[in-house]
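Morning, I've got a small favour to ask if you have a moment. Here's the protein in full, and shout if anything looks odd to you:
***
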Amino acid sequence: MTLLPVLAESTPGVEGEPIRLIDVGAGAGLPGIPLAIVRPDVRVTLLDSTAKKCEFMRACARELNLANVQVVCARAEDAGQDRGARTGTGRVGAHRDAYDLVTARAVGRLATLAELSVPLARVGGLIALIKGEKADEELGEAKGALHLLHAAHAGTVQTPTGRVVVLEKLRTTPKLYPRRPGEPKRSPLGSDPTSRKRET
């Protein structure tokens, strides 16, 4: 529920459409399912790569009659490169550049988490990352990553159990990011001095 103030600041990318939220590494459905319950007007996508967790979340959504929830079983790296299917009028079903708000908790350090989450947000969208007391330290580490991803720190919200780091996507994410599955964790963006040269 500590994300509700950030959600209240989110606006839909298309006027008249519902706000689209994706929860990265949703696990057992936190915070996505509670947010879907209290904000039935928001379309919530729960993203996780583990099939058993995805089945559990689907069962929860059915039991709770959450018509505004969909579960996607995929790695964040793959979802972040998913530009949808091409049709005669454009593309449909994309995850990249598609969401007004991206949330994640306990997935990894901020530099890694930014690479997994920022590509999913539309330009002007927000990314709310639930972090602990080392949020400021991680923000310092992630400065280079945020620059490469064309995102900026928009503020930090203090909560009873930690902090919510809010990022804003300023421009389109370079096509290179997110990198291949596992690479963001193995080699956090911005830590490699040659990563700037690889930007496209």
